[in-house]
Amino acid sequence: MTQKTVAAPRQSLSVVDNRTGKAYEVPIKNNAVLATDIKKIAAQPQDGDRPEDETPQGLRVYDPAYMNTAAIESKITYINGQEGILRYRGYPIEQLVGKSTFLETAYLLIYGQLPTASQYGAWQQEILHHTYIHSDIEGMFKSFRYDSHPMSMMTAAFATLGAFAPEANPSLQGQKLYTDAASGRSPAALKALDKQILRIIGKAPTLAAASYRMRQGRPFNRPAQGLSYTGNFLYLLDNLSGHEYQPHPVLERALDALFILHADHERRRRRLRRPLRPFPRRRFRERHPHAHGDWQPRECARLHEEGGEARARPRRLWPSRLQEC
Predict the structure, then answer these.
(1) Three-state DSSP state, 212
(2) Under 8 Å between Cβ of 224 and 232
(3) How many C-beta atoms lie closer than 10 Å to residue 148's C-beta?
């Protein structure tokens, strides 16, 4: 008695173009089809087609906001928002938040495996060594307006770092600097890449804190010795010349967990559930009748003489966060 074997289903998609009657078989790999295979489905222009449709050049896939388009194949991060799953290099986020640190997770994301005790010690020491920034960058921060957005200042600061590391600039060292490093063809390029990783991770909290302190009108802090990565960030943000400043351990651990959750966003794009709408100007003026267009931003409840009467001129504030000066 012979046993019949059932053939495995073909990993492909059969498509019939009703415009031409042609049949196509599109391969399926990792539950995805290539857009270039879809482009092979071509036809001649018909009545009603626009020149912009480029029908003879192949079928296109229309996907506004990338709701169902895979742009890359990642072995680093897996995100499933519907099931609440997030994995870095195969490790569940719950394990990393509960048993790891941000710097250890960063090492995992970059190099593909968790560091040993000696590797982690050297990694942490090198990153904390690169937390300091050049004094000229502090001068760059002071050139911004007092009410500049922190993200604008931080973006400019990261761009400014390139002026202090010409050996890591592809425009000066060759366009293949980092591609040669990633492929392992150039040990010198790989060394430059590793140093840039240390610089960016190390200086990120210092630049972020400087953006915040600039917005608050406070002097900049220098990185402290003997604190963790997130503890040093809290010190840079909050220290007010207190020599014995110590970050709260609960807040420090919570911030470290937040950094782990946001360590890698991959490239998934999401749409807002509801579009953001600007605050109606008329409603704001009805609620705040003293809001005149001739406010002076730096002044707060300053008295001005007009027609023999003194009136208070309020400070220009965002409608959503009115506050005392």
Answers:
(1) helix
(2) yes
(3) 15
pLDDT for 4: 61
Which residue, among 65, 67, 89, has the nearest Cα to 78 in the 3D structure? 89
Distance between CA atoms of 18 and 191, rounded to whole angstroms? 56
Pairing of strands 309-313, 302-306: antiparallel
pLDDT tens, residue by residue, 181-195 = 878 788 888 888 899
Going 80 to 83 to 89 to 90, the CA torsion angle's sign is negative
Is the CATH code 1.10.580.10 the one for domain 98-262? yes
Please state the pTM of the whole predicted model.
0.71
Residue 257 to residue 251: CA distance in whole angstroms: 10
Residues near 117 by beta carbon (within 8 Å), at least 6 away in sequence: none
**Residue 232 burial (C-beta neighbours within 10 Å; 0-12, 13-18, 19+):** buried
Kindly give the interhelix angle for 117-129 and 187-216, rounded to the nearest 10 degrees.
50
Higher-pLDDT residue of 125 and 49 is 125
Q: Are 121 and 129 within 8 A, CB to CB?
A: no
**How confident is the model at residue 296, as a pLDDT?**
35
Do 45 and 56 contact (CB within 8 A), yes or no? yes
Rounded to whole angstroms, how far apart are CA atoms 192 and 184?
12
What pairing do the DSSP bridges indicate for beta strands 12-17 and 22-27?
antiparallel
Tokens of 319: 């409608």
Parse the chain into domains and list their residue ranges: 12-57, 98-262
Any residues with CB less than 8 A from the CB of 139 and at least 6 apart, and which? none
Q: Are 215 and 150 in contact (CB under 8 A)?
A: yes
